[in-house]
Amino acid sequence: MSEKKYKTIQYLDRNESQYGPSPKCYDYLKTVSIEELSWYSRDFARGVKSKLSERIAKDFGFKETQIILSYGSEDILKQLIHRYVMRGDKILIPKEAWWYYKKVAYEVGGFNVEYPMIKGKIDGIDSYLYDVDKMISIYDRERPRVVIIASPNNPTGNKISSEDLYRFLDACRGSIVMIDEAYWGFGSMDNSYVKPYLDEFPNLIICRTFSKYFALAGSRIGFSFAGNNLEELKGFTTRYLGYNLVSENLAMICLDDIEYYKKVTQMMQEDKEMFYREFSKLDGFTPYKSYANFMMVDMPSKIRKDLDKFLKERNLLIKFLDEEAFKTETRITLGTKEQNKYLIESIKEFLNK
Ligand SMILES: Cc1ncc(COP(=O)(O)O)c(C=O)c1O
Hints:
CATH superfamily of the largest domain: Type I PLP-dependent aspartate aminotransferase-like (Major domain)
Distance between the termini: 15 Å
CATH class of the largest domain: Alpha Beta
Helix content: 25-40%
Mean pLDDT: 97
Radius of gyration: 21 Å
Largest sheet: 7 strands, mixed
Number of helices: 13
Bound molecules: pyridoxal-5'-phosphate
Number of strands: 14
CATH topology of the largest domain: Aspartate Aminotransferase, domain 2
Number of domains: 2
Low-confidence stretches: none
């Protein structure tokens, strides 16, 4: 194996796709017209926000008004918090969470209350788990304005079962609940709960994005299913002159090429299995079950600095987490087969030095 396989940095630390979007996206980009670049979409005049919101509503059996479009799920999270959280309000978030959940309430003078996850096993593999009893007791005590659940969660990679989710939503009827499904699709493509849960819980919003599964992070496009009580948010987020037409067209091309994404996800799944196997063999390493496009791996803390340096010299970046909940864990974004193989071989070579 050559020492430095890649001439440029391989970013396996940012949860972006290394495979890229459907090749049909590139075909489309070569044909973009003046109308798509220079004109407003004028869809609002037809009584809908856009072709994309119309399409998603139809696919899922919703009224178009229940679909919110956003510049990814970061954008809708920010808008939700800015619209509903006032100075002194609490939001309830996982302790083991994406860093932005920890910041966003402070932008409006609110603050966080955290619920911890527990550790267990799924299919014999170590996993973080949502502890719904605990979550409900913290909810009852704190009565937050907004509750966030991430499924799959970043950086732990676990998801919540639809039964646990139902129990929790049932307990949280007095608050707005956001389910962040940014990593939807990698571990399961189940959509069966979306419409029934939205119908039953009018304070619920389920957020999805084209950034991860569909590999369009640079196009900044996402969507949400919003419950009937979230009328103000629907108004707050509407852009009457339209959205990014090119991004929307790319998103629709992706929705029409699920076969491509299934193939990519299958390759990633094979590599997850390879990582579970290979990391489990290494002394002091624990891989965690992942339903996302990344995997958390606990590693001996004494090697962190040197391993980081060793991998960087090979142009490989993985994320050595350094936050309250995670001091010894790393988060590895699943790369291509070639990248993943090179990464595990490099780690083994480092350990055998
Ligand atoms: C859990 C989670 N939610 C949301 C986002 C934001 O993604 P985007 O704004 O690209 O949709 C990220 C980004 O990494 C994430 O990890």
